[in-house]
């Protein structure tokens, strides 16, 4: 193995009395693409700053190959200069390199740096990073605010560049495509897996199970030592003192483990009253702003329980279509009929509901009192906030002091407390760690109401969506059953030659169709239905057979005999069909590694 180009050895860092890193080892060799994963607040961004030399650790060593060029793209890049080209060239790139990288990300080099969208800011920062010809790229949440096509462009750039890369991201599909090593920041240390991210979940679960076993063994050892001490066994004083010290040390170890135990989110959805079967029905929708056509002649029907994903390039009009479907915006042509009894909870990607000067307490209580109604029951705001991993000391802090992930969690906390039968989530995955995303996904999968999801997270869409509505940015809108993978499989050329204002249209890297890593929401639900059928039908068949075993049934009631015989035959046919379909879906799940 080649010598590392950047490495940390036995690094320790404390924030006051809290130890952030305790013996961290991390090494990146030339050309290696690695992920750095961990919960929000674990210290990933701080570890990145130690790697760059921006801050010094309290102890341990940092090594970098002399002359190596390290380039960082932070979570919130700042773009300066008069034009995008000015900003990229300021990093030391040649005029040609700067212009080429901007154009690769679909940007006009002469565009002003004023008034850029979140996606444009991210693409400019990435263009500058690649233009600087780095030896090591450190990317902190690089896919935030990017549309799917810009993410695919980034995947191609990373796959073809010679630089090593360490990437902090929550986007599973992205990490699965570009990384071949995983670093997991957990419990103040970094663990290493020399495989791609697709193996991370299984590996991390094994690690946690091993830790749980170790903790159980520690508890048993403490119990044995406490029993020995309680017996008051006499013996050599030195031996007794040694065992006493051992017991004290084990108690301290247990206290440390408990103190550092990973907090867990405890989300729940407040289900509103059941809506009508029809949630929204659109016929012949058309909407344009000047010469720019958003929707032209689009019709759809959203029914109770549907999970509808909206996809397309940034600026294609996804949020506009949502507003049209909810009746918040009047179409130029066509009509929308909303169902009855709708209770809507809406989380905006811009997080515009969070006002400057508001505290976390204000947001959760609407500015008054210390109670919040959660699923119809009053809760103290501090207790509810803890379920979303907020500490008491944060309650009176302004929301401007919260990180992106914390602001997103705060909006989720408020939205999920309110009764709703229609959830509208506009880019809900930005800044959330993977554990929170998994919990949110499970929550939404079990939600009894209807979901409208605007997202660029392909994996998240594939796991949840029952149908996908895609906008090409030129007025064409198409709906396909299933998630992103299903849509691209059935509409492979839909996004080609689209609006050049974004990154160029890119199919999945290396010409491959994205492989789902889990069953779709629809398939998973069908699998569960089949398992219930397979469990119940044998009992039903047995009861029918027992009735048919009555030798007098035919003579006594021929019509009933015929009904029972037909019912038994149908139940057997249903069982055979269910078992066959179950086997097919199980084989599909095994093939996906789900």
User: What is the distance, rounded to the nearest whole angstrom, between the alpha carbons of the first and last residues?
Assistant: 32 Å
Strand content: 15-25%
DSSP, total strands = 20
CATH topology description of the largest domain: Rossmann fold
Describe this structure in words.
With 594 residues, the chain is an alpha/beta fold. The protein has three domains: 6-202, 3-Layer(aba) Sandwich (Rossmann fold); 278-504, Rossmann fold; 522-592, Orthogonal Bundle (Helix Hairpins), CATH 1.10.287. 41% of the residues lie in helices and 21% in strands. It contains 18 helices and 20 strands. Strands 5-6-7-3-8-9 form a six-stranded mixed beta sheet, sandwiched between helices. A six-stranded mixed beta sheet has the order 14-17-18-12-19-20, with helices on both faces. Helix 3 packs across helix 4 and helix 7 (200-230) runs antiparallel to helix 8 (237-259). The longest helix is centred in the C-terminal third of the chain and has 35 residues, at 558-592. The protein is globular and about 100 Å long. Residues 233-238, 257-263 and 499-516 have low confidence and may be disordered.
Q: What is this entry, summarized?
A:
The chain has about 600 residues and is α/β, with parallel strands linked by helices. It has helices spanning about 45-50, 85-90, 95-105, 120-130, 150-160, 170-180, 200-230, 235-260, 320-325, 360-365, 380-385, 405-415, 435-445, 460-465, 485-490, 520-550, 555, 560-590, and strands spanning about 5-15, 20-30, 35, 60-65, 70-75, 135-140, 165-170, 180-185, 190-195, 280-290, 290-305, 305-310, 335-340, 345, 370-375, 375-380, 420-425, 450-455, 465-470, 475-480. The chain folds into three domains: about 5-200, Rossmann fold (3-Layer(aba) Sandwich), CATH 3.40.50; about 280-505, 3-Layer(aba) Sandwich (Rossmann fold), CATH 3.40.50; about 520-590, Helix Hairpins, CATH 1.10.287.
């Amino acid at each position: 193995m080649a010598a590392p180009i950047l490495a940390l050895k036995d690094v320790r860092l404390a924030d006051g009395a809290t130890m952030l890193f305790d013996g961290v080892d991390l090494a990146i060799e030339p050309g290696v693409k690695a992920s750095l994963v961990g919960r929000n607040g674990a210290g990933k961004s701080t570890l990145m700053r130690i790697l760059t030399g921006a801050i010094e650790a309290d102890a341990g060593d940092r090594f970098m190959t002399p002359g190596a060029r390290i380039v960082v793209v932070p979570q919130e890049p700042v773009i300066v200069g008069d034009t995008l080209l000015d900003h990229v060239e300021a990093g030391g790139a040649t005029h040609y390199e700067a212009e080429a990288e901007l154009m690769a990300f679909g940007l006009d080099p002469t565009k002003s740096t004023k008034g850029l969208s979140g996606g444009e800011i991210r693409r400019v920062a990435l263009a500058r990073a690649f233009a600087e010809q780095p030896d090591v790229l450190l990317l902190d949440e690089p896919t935030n605010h990017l549309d799917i096509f810009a993410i695919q462009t980034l995947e191609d750039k990373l796959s073809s560049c010679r630089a090593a890369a360490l990437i902090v991201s929550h986007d599973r599909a992205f990490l699965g495509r570009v990384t071949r090593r995983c670093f997991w920041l957990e419990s103040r240390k970094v663990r290493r897996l020399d495989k791609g991210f697709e193996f991370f979940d299984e590996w991390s679960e094994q690690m946690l199970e091993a830790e749980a076993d170790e903790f159980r063994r520690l508890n048993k050892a403490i119990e044995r030592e406490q029993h020995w001490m309680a017996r008051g066994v006499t013996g050599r004083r030195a031996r007794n003192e040694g065992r006493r010290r051992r017991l004290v040390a084990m108690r301290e170890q247990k206290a440390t483990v408990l103190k550092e135990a990973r907090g867990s989110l405890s989300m729940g959805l407040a289900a509103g009253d059941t809506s009508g079967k029809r949630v929204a029905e659109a016929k012949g929708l058309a909407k344009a702003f000047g010469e720019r056509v958003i929707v032209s002649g689009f019709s759809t029907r959203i029914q109770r329980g549907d999970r509808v994903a909206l996809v397309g390039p940034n600026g294609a009009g996804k949020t506009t279509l949502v507003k049209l479907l909810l009746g918040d915006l009047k179409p130029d042509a066509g009509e929308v009929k909303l169902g009855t009894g709708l209770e809507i909870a809406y989380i905006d990607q811009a997080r515009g509901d969070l006002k400057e000067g508001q505290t976390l307490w204000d947001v959760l209580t609407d500015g008054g009192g210390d109670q919040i109604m959660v699923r119809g029951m009053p809760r103290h705001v501090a207790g509810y906030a803890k379920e979303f991993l907020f500490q008491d000391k944060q309650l009176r802090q302004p929301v401007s002091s919260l990180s992106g992930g914390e602001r997103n969690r705060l909006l989720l906390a408020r939205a999920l407390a309110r009764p709703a039968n229609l959830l509208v989530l506009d880019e809900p995955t930005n800044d959330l760690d993977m554990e929170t995303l998994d919990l949110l996904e499970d929550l939404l999968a079990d939600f009894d109401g209807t979901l409208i999801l605007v997202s660029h997270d392909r994996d998240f869409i594939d796991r949840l969506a029952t149908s996908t509505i895609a906008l090409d940015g030129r007025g064409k809108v198409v709906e396909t059953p299933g998630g992103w993978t299903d849509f691209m499989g059935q509409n492979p050329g839909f996004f080609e030659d689209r609006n050049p204002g974004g990154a160029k249209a890119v199919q999945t890297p290396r010409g491959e169709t994205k492989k789902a890593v889990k069953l779709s929401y629809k398939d998973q639900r069908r699998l569960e239905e089949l398992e219930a059928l397979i469990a119940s039908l044998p009992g039903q068949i047995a009861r029918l057979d027992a009735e048919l075993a009555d030798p007098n049934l035919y003579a006594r009631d021929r019509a009933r005999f015929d009904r029972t015989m037909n019912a038994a035959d149908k139940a057997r046919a249903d069982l055979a069909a269910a078992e066959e379909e179950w086997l097919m879906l199980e084989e599909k799940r095994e093939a996906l590694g789900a």
